[in-house]
Amino acid sequence: MKKISICLILLWGAVQVSAQTDSIYIEAKLSPDKKNLDVSQEIVYHNHSGKDLQTIKLLNWVSAYNKRGTSLVYRKLEDRNTDLHFAKSDQLGKLLELNIKNSENETVSINTLSDENLFIPLKNVLKPGESVKLQLQYRMQLPDRAFTGYGTSAQNTILKYFFIVPDHFDPDNISRRNYHDIEEPVSFNTFWTVNFDIPVNSFVEGNLPQIQMNSFKGYLDSDPEFLVSTTSFPSIKTNVDGEEIDIKFGYNLKPEEKQNLEFYLPLQLKFLKERIGLLPKSIFISDKFRAKEDFFGNNDITFWKFRFRLFTDTENTDLDYFGIIAKKVLDESVIADKEKDHWFKNGLKSYLEIQYLKKFYADTKLLGTLPETRIFGIKPLKLFHASKVKLLDRYGLSYQYIMLQNLDQKIDEHFPVLSNFNDMAISSFETGSLFNYSADKMGYDRFNEIVKNYISQNSGKQINPEEFLTALSEKNKSAAYLSGFFKQKNRVDFKLKNIRKENDSLQIRIVKNTDISIPVKLQTETREGEKKDYWVDTQENEHVTSLSLPASENIYKVTLNNGYIFPESNYRDNFLYAKGLFSNAKKIKLKLIKDIPNPEYNEIYISPRVRFNNTYDKFLLGVNLKNQSFFDQKFLYSVTPTYSTGTGKLTGSAAVSYSFLPAESIIRSLTFGASGSYFHYDYDLAYRKTSLSSTINFRKNPRSTVSRGIGISYNYFERDLSPQMIATNDYSKYNLWSIGYGYSDSQMIHEKSFSLSTQGMEDFNKITAEGFYRWEFAPKQKLSVRLFAGYFLRNNTRTNLFNYGISRVSNYSFSYTLLGESASSGILSQQFILADGGFKSFLPGSVNQWITSANVDSSVWKIFHVYADAGVYKNKNLPAKFIWDTGVKVRIIPDFLEIYFPIQSSLGFEPSFKDYGKRIRYTLILNLGSIINAARRGWY
User: Fold this and answer.
1) Higher-scoring residue by pLDDT: 330, 825
2) Which bin fits 514, alpha (ψ -120 to 50), beta or left (φ > 0)?
3) Mean pLDDT of 94-105
4) Per-residue pLDDT at 15 exceeds 80
5) What is the 3-state secondary structure (H, E, C) of 422-485?
6) Is 720 left (phi over 0), alpha (psi -120 to 50) or beta?
7) What are phi and psi of 512, to 5 degrees?
8) What's the mean pLDDT in 426-450?
9) For the chain, how long is the longest CA-to-CA vector?
10) Engineering a disulfide at 118: which of 58, 423, 480, 776 sits with its beta carbon 3.0 to 4.6 angstroms away?
């Protein structure tokens, strides 16, 4: 009995230690200009670790806004945002003063105020379960709210992550942790008391219970957040199963929006309670949280003066706020380290969204009512498969889109290194789809009960999501694959191999490309549209599974994982017909315009083409046949026969390629391709080009702007020659091979690239190197430097066709888009391509031995730049020569349309020349792909 009593006492002590709650008392005074915050603070901190502590780490995250080079500034640059990098001193956040006293009222020395992590030495060792009291007095300058959504502005001040607090996710107090603006949680299991002294005529609201005006007190498992404003914002009180819940908003609501919310919020909260069990008594929604967690893809489409609506205001309110409320409830109920375990809450949010859409928006389309829009009396969007895609399909389609580019990441990747798109497509959508897939297999009620029990059992303590996955697999063995699935990038593919009729049954063979045991959902459909679902359990280490169904069921079509319900690498082999002309085969569908792919068909896109090629072919009229949809594919082909209006002849091009996209490799893609083209490069002179190529693109961090690749190509050319060219023994046929390495980093502030290549044929070999650097030294003000070097290892050519250009390139490989390929005078000859020497002035000659050059360009004012070029070149049997030029550049459309006005050069003062108008150069790039790539930087 005595032993039992001792055990009970020890057990009670252990429970007491684990249940110990930290407390933080704060007196905060906001200055009249709302720029400075004075804080008097007391922290009672318990040792929650299992070992002695000699230091306590305090997070001083206002210092993340203090200077260039912090993790926060770098992340903003990754997102293509330079505001914080170029911020003025009075816009930054910084800790101005700090005084810390220990439990004995002794001052603790602090080495620096600019560090985001303050390690406070303790006078006495802090044993596990013991507590220590710290007294803090500090003053800080708040950053502008524009940088992260937290800070101060003329309208209001939002305080989050600014108070100096312990890091509860690091109980050992040893790891440095910087602020990234990813809504990373810091505090839990803490009792807060916060009293504010704010400017007159101001109001303060927050996520803590308010006990009196400007005073808040209560327990939180999340971080405190306060809004100080001159405006009092609305709130909505609602009742769910007899429990009153107060929803407070940090922004104004339109009357119709508030009316809609008063109807929808009780329904949404009840829906959530039935599935996760717990609801907080108070919910505070900030403007930033609303913008981050609202429904993606339901916004109206605006174009010029036109506005096209996808959903009604009522539907938008319902869709937006369900996601917002779901994530807020999870944030208040579940304690998770976002860096490591982000996928748990994000995945549950998407799972709950899927359930909500299934119940209330099961037949709603991805584009809403947009396909019903009439233009000139017709509904053009009805021609697209996108008009038939369901809103529920967005979860699987988002994963498909990023996976087919091999830019996806594993689900349990640390959150700070997830790309912005993968935050949504992988952490949320893919995880939510897998949760829904498992719930569908084991039963939704059963899955929801596991979720409710897990959240309830882990109330008030940090979760380990692996335990949740274990609980799933214990309830249903078919979910056992999830734990390993989350730890790697996956390329699972289920394939319908064939359907055979044997006696009175249909034998359906299913093939999977993995050894893992993963269930697959099979759906049959009759010609009358009657559908039946079957779950098929596949075996570990077995790739082929067979299913027998009665032939009497009159099955017409069989589908695997219909509706993108499982994150597969290829849905195109998930459909087969059991009867008809296309039994055991895929149907072919011809389409006019690029679309979201319909995996049920082999789609061929046939689209008219009209484009201006050059002054010889003029406009090309033709048709393009290809299989490339909005999503990338491994195998691509494109055939474009055209009619040349300039020559009256048939021209065109064709290409085929295949890409290998290994999921886990140093290589992101390995592409082999072949192409051919036939166009004109001068009046009545055509060229034919045949190419074989291979390109390796190396793996990149999807948040990084760095790209690296190696390219190998072989090209065969045939050219028609004029009588003069024949007389000079010019080349009518030649082969070119080339090998090159390229590196580029398109980051903000410091953009750079480098390439090294070698090229040759029977008459020459040359090696070329090029480096580029562009520095944004002020907002939208840049300085760029380009270095070029070219050297002929061997040159026995008959003409100057393959020479390096000084101010004009020799387009012998027909790789540059020149409007006047062979033009020697007129406006077309003034087109400038930044290649070879890169000189803008018309400096005569070309180079057949070696050349080095430097091209400098700098912003001056708005669209006006100055440039300077200098270089040295040497031709055979001639001495080396130094050349240079300077001038003014006007950037009409940066990097796409620019005009060069030469001023001074080796030729003299060029504006004094009579033909100065003919010396003005321009850059014109008509490449839609380049524009799209520039626009999507920052997402992945």
Assistant:
1) 330
2) beta
3) 94
4) no
5) HHHHHHHHHHHHHHHHHHHHHCHHHHHHHHHHHHHHCCCCECCHHHHHHHHHHHCHHHCCHHHH
6) beta
7) -120, 155
8) 96
9) 115
10) 58
Two structure tokens written together for 684:
């009545």
For residue 425, give the nearest of 445, 442, 405, 449 by alpha carbon.
405
283 — pLDDT class (breaks 50, 70, 90): very high
Which two tokens mark 461?
């303590």
Give the model's pLDDT for residue 73: 96
Residue 17 confidence (pLDDT):
36
Mean pLDDT of the chain: 92
pLDDT at 933: 52
Q: What number of other Cβ atoms are within 10 A of residue 548's Cβ? A: 11
Task: Give the helix, strand, coil percentages of the chain, each rounded to 5.
Answer: 25, 40, 40
Q: 613: exposed, middle or buried (C-beta count within 10 Å: 0-12, 13-18, 19+)?
A: buried
Summarize pLDDT for 737-769 with one digit per residue, the tens. 999 999 999 999 999 999 999 999 999 999 999
Cα angle, residue 445 at apex, residues 442 and 446 outer, rounded to 5°: 50
3-class secondary-structure state, position 266: helix
**Are 395 and 361 a contacting pair, CB within 8 Å?**
no
Cα–Cα dist 769/836, whole Å:
10
Taking the C-alpha atoms of residue 879 and residue 890, their distance in angstroms, rounded to an integer, is 35
| Centroid of chain to Cα 939 | 3
- pLDDT at residue number 926: 67
**Residues 569-589, mean pLDDT to the nearest whole number:** 86
Kindly compute the dihedral angle of the four CA atoms of residues 659, 415, 432, 81, in this order, to the nearest 10 degrees: -80
Residue 392: is its pLDDT beyond 70?
yes
Specify burial of residue 829 (Cβ count, 10 A radius: 0-12, 13-18, 19+).
Answer: middle
| pLDDT(894) > 90 | no
Q: How far apart are CA 265 and CA 371, in angstroms?
A: 29
Planar angle of CA 372, 377, 382, nearest 5 degrees: 35
DSSP character string of 159-228: ESS-S-EE-TT-TT--S-----SS------SEEEEEEEE--TT-EEEESSPEEETTEEEEEESS---EEE
546-564 pLDDT, tens per residue? Answer: 999 998 788 999 999 999 9
User: Tell me, what's the pLDDT at 582?
Assistant: 75
Instruction: Report the Cα 146 to chain-centroid distance in Å.
Output: 21
Place of tokens 């759906």: 523
Task: Tell me the average pLDDT across 558-579.
Answer: 93
Could you write out the DSSP letters of every residue in 351-398? HHHHHHHHHH-TT-BTTTTGGG--BTTB-GGGGSGGGT-BGGGHHHHH
Per-residue pLDDT averaged across 285-308, rounded? 88
Q: Which helix (H) or strand (E) holds 328?
A: helix 313-333
* DSSP class of 46: E
Query: Buried b vs exposed e over 306-344: b needs ≥16 C-beta within 10 Å?
Result: eeebbbeeebbbbbbbbbbbbbbbbbbbbbbbbbebbbb
pLDDT of residue 305: 75
The residue behind tokens 């260039």 is 68
Three-state secondary-structure class, residue 346: helix
Q: Kindly give the residue spans of alpha helices, DSSP state H, lying in 59-111.
A: 71-78
Gyration radius (Cα) of the chain, Å = 33
Say how far apart CA 510 and CA 519 lie, in whole Å.
Answer: 11
